[in-house]
Amino acid sequence: MNNYAYALIVIGLVNIIFGFYVLIPSRKSQAVRFLALSIIFLGLWGVGLAGFLSSNDVQTALYWSRFHYVASIYIAYFILLFEMSLTQKKKIDFQTVMLLQIPVFLVSLAVVFSDSLIIKDVILEKSGNVALLNRVGHITYGVVFAVYYLIALMINLKALIKSNGILKNQLTLIFTGFLLTGFLGGTFNLILPILGNYKLIWIGPQFSIIFLGLIFIAIVKYQLFNIRLLAGKVLYVITSASLLYLTFRIFLNIHLEIFGERLGWEAIIFGVVISILFALLYDKYREFFQEKISTRIINLGYDASKFLDRFTYSLGNIVTEDSVLKELHGIVKETIDPIYFSIIVKRDSAVINKQYTGNKVFDNKRIFEIVNSPLFAKKKSISLGELIGVFNVDDESYKVAYGELITLLERSDLHLLIPVHYEKELIAILILGKRDLNSTMYIEQEIAFLQSLASITGASLARATLYQQVQNFNINLQKDVSEKTKELQRNVEELEDARRKERDMLDIMGHELRTPATIVKLNTDLLGKFVDNNPVSYQKYLDRIKNSIENEIRLIDTLLSSAKLEGKKIELNRERLSITEQIETVLHGYEYQIKQKGLRVMVDLEDDMKDVYADKVRVVEIIDNLLSNAIKYTDEGSIIMKAEDTDDYVKVSIIDSGKGIPEKEIPRLGTKFHRVENYITGESNFNIVRPGGTGLGLYVVYALIEMMGGKIWVHSQVGKGTTFSFTLPVYKGQGVKIPSVDEKNLFEKFGLKK
Q: What are the tens digits of pLDDT across the range 259-279?
């Protein structure tokens, strides 16, 4: 066997081994499968040529010749599929794969089963076997190969022109490898044989080393298909196998030179000594080479498990989010030490970027949204190289999403994202820039290490969040307790104030009830003395008795109404009634008091006044209360009673020229037990004694008007008088509703519970 046949076998086996190493873990990527198959067929091509050149009989040589022709045409086929799958970023359907295979399959049939279409015969020579070719058939074969090969190059070149960043570097290496291998291989294996030179066909497969080397660089430097670990293993296996083979050949040649083919004691002792020396040297070599490959290609250069254990132990004593993230940064700094490192953290609706190494400005919120989308929900890591290289999606909305993510990452020179989840919820993202100044890629072990850190960090951040929530709860609880305590103190003060008002009211009510009764008693006694002597003059005492009794009845009515309003059990018997009649009725009852104080009373009522829909008794009570106050607080001047109607309401106003009400007191009118200050200051800065009262009259008035669907308001100025105005709805044929009344203990109705 010639030396170049050995070289072809070695190169072929290297390609086949590397191809299978790539093919085995490539189930998820169609592009990787096609690349692996093209490399395998490159190896089969070389092996087929070695078999052809070293065959000693015509039939065997003919078999190997046909074998390497079929292998070479499938190289072009799988390279085209690889380029289509890689650059189009989508899976090639089965129909396209089979359609492209038809010409290749037909050519293969012609090669295998025809004795004259392509290969007519084989001539055995010591310097290397020669195949006799059918020129037309061989040219046809070459055209099919060239068409597939050139289309693949054009697809690659088109994608290369449009690409940038990492993808551009990857495509450049692939394009260069395909161009050199195809051009040189095609020259020595297609063009020269047509021209009659078949002796140099062994050179073509040698150039596959160029292709393999460039692919290896793309894998190691630019992490093509994320199979850097696999490349390291292949390199280790190939170099180890080559060393073992070369050592064996050297030892065999030395043994034959010294001992010939004799196997005596000297030869055995020599072999044992050489074996021991080889074992010692190989062990050192293995350690050295594994270390170099591990630190430069495969492994991390540090013990990941120890750092994970240390990280887990450290987090046992950490309870805050910032401390967890700082500890994580410390681990990443000691191990991977990227040029840029930050952590995007979600806090409620906000997304915060905590930068630890380097400083960059990018849309961290949008990155978080995209990574949290269904497209990336199940991914444990997202590398820029992976996105650009082989990430395949069919949904247009997803294409927009990952296209936007690629733009965001490339714009800020970010190369790796590690999502941090807790119970399937994304809570943070580790952001890494370049690995170092010479490399943008992270190897599989580094990514796995970062994923383990992210998993531990997720649980720790959740615990830190829970701790912060507990702390916030304690703070809020203390704050709530403090506020509730203050509120309780206010309630206690208000309760004490209410009790004080009730006591004052009882005192006032006792005085108010006692005074009319005393007057009745005294006037009755006086009437008894004078009735016989002067029957004419006793009339004034009868008037006093009547007035006191009316005041007593009015006070009792007010108390009863107040009690019913408090218990929401007041009875309203609404009906159609004339507001004019009610005003005249009430005014007639106060003729004596008005005449006694010398007041002028004017009544201003519109003609054809509309009737109102209200409770007659309660309307009389309202007007009576307001007129009583006007008379009580007006020492001189006039009182005007005015009524006017609109479409929906009748407005009644009682205007007096009395003392008036201070502006600050007006908002509190209508409050139960509220009485205007006993002393008010007049315009001349002298004190005026405010007449007494229970503080219930206006409370009843306000509540009754509101219950009957009306409104009440007040205008007043101290020293000039007061105007009380209220409205009641116009009668429009409404029905009469009589609610039930639940009589209770009068003590409760008065609001005097103990």
A: 777 777 877 887 788 888 878
pLDDT confidence of residue 747: 41
Our measurement of the distance from residue 439's CA atom to the centroid of its chain's CA atoms, rounded to an integer in Å, reads 33
Q: Could you count the other beta carbons within 10 Å of the beta carbon of residue 390? A: 19
The model's confidence at residue 521, banded by pLDDT at 50, 70 and 90, is low
Count CB atoms within 10 A of the CB of residue 507. 10
Q: How many helices (H) and strands (E) does the chain have?
A: 22, 16
Query: What distance in Å separates the CA atoms of residue 394 and residue 401, rounded to the nearest whole number?
Result: 12
Amino acid at 712: I
If you search the block for the tokens 């006086």, which residue do you land on? 526
Cα distance between residue 676 and residue 692, in whole Å: 9
Q: Select from 341, 312, 309 the least CA-distant residue to 459.
A: 312
For residue 714, what are the β-bridge partners?
724
Q: Which two tokens stand for residue 670?
A: 């209508």
Instruction: HSE, CB side, 13 Å, CA atoms: give it for residue 457.
Output: 30
Residue 428, classed as helix, strand or coil, is: strand
Helix (H) or strand (E) holding 555: helix 539-566
What pLDDT, on the 0 to 100 scale, is given for residue 336? 85
**Residue 662: which of 588, 719, 624, 713 has the closest Cα?**
719
Exposed (0-12), middle (13-18) or buried (19+): which is 523, by Cβ within 10 Å? buried
Whether residue 227 has pLDDT greater than 60: no
The tally of CA atoms less than 13 A away on the side-chain side of residue 614 is 29
DSSP letter assigned to residue 691: P
Mean pLDDT of 536-564: 62
Residue 550: CB atoms within 10 Å: 16
Sequence-separated (6 or more) residues with CB below 8 Å from residue 715: 722, 723, 725
Give pLDDT, residue 292: 63
Of 351, 350, 332, 346, which Cα lies nearest the Cα of 416? 332
The pLDDT of residue 431 is above 80: yes
Q: Residue 680: which of 723, 717, 732, 731 has the closest Cα?
A: 717
**Residue 508: pLDDT band with limits 50, 70, 90:** low
CA distance 591 to 615: 24
- Extended strands (E) in 638-730: 638-645, 649-656, 679-681, 687-689, 712-717, 721-729
When pLDDT is averaged across residues 38-59 and rounded to a whole number, the result is 84
Return d(Cα 28, Cα 31) in angstroms, integer.
9
Residue 403, pLDDT score? 81
Tally the C-alpha atoms within 13 A of residue 180's C-alpha that lie toward its C-beta.
15
Q: How many CB atoms lie within 10 A of CB 266?
A: 11
Residue of 2 and 36 predicted with greater confidence: 36
Q: Which residues pair with 341 in a beta bridge?
A: 357, 432
d(CA 449, CA 335): 10
User: Is the full-model pTM beyond 0.70?
Assistant: no
Query: Which pLDDT score is estimated for 253?
Result: 78
Answer for the pair 119, 66: CB distance below 8 angstroms, yes or no. Answer: yes
Q: Is 37 helix (H, G, I), strand (E, B) or coil?
A: helix
Q: How far apart are alpha carbons 508 and 555 in whole angstroms?
A: 12
pLDDT band at residue 710 using 50, 70 and 90 as cut-offs: very high
Q: Which whole-number Å values give the CA distances from 64 to 102, 119, 131, 265, 313, in the listed order? A: 23, 11, 11, 44, 63
- Tell me whether strands 687-689 and 679-681 are parallel, antiparallel or unpaired: antiparallel
Q: How many CA atoms lie within 13 A of 248 on its CB side?
A: 6
DSSP code of residue 611? P
* Cα–Cα distance measured from residue 5 to residue 228, given in angstroms and rounded to the nearest whole number: 31
